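Before a colleague's protein record goes any further, I have to sign it off. I want your independent view on whether this chain really folds as the tokens say. The record follows directly below this note.
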Amino acid sequence: MYERLITLLDAEGAQYRTIDHAPEGATELVSELRGNSLGQAAKCIVVMVKVGKKVTRYVLAVVPGDRRVDIGAVKGLLEGTYASFASRDIAERLAGSVSGTVLPFSFDERLELVVDPDLLAHEEIFFNAARLDRSLALSVKDYVRIAAPRTEAIAG
């Protein structure tokens, strides 16, 4: 997944830089290693939303690192009847990487990307690049242009 991301960013002419660091997946700790504010860290959580009894949808919810995903807000966006964090195995399968390294990009059509606008108020965002030992600092303008996320208030 790391190579897929870098290939995409290079093909799109994105402004980014890599940051190598000790292996870490917790947003607070990895932000210290990278030297970024928590508000600039992209915290990526996969949320499962039931819409009625037969339809299940998945959202890649991306919020600033100093905030939490508001499950109720995500449920409301999809007019769901129930929402929760996706199980670890489903989240990792849809995201294409292990927990703690989930990218703020969706490469799976079953995973809808929704980003809280407060994260996009910065010039750069920081996230683990599908690896525990390497992060990216990516221009917000390029992130929005390439990832084309749905932008909604989903941070609590």
User: Anything to note?
Assistant: Residues 38 and 65 are 5 Å apart (CA to CA). The two ends are 29 Å apart (CA to CA). The mean pLDDT is 96.
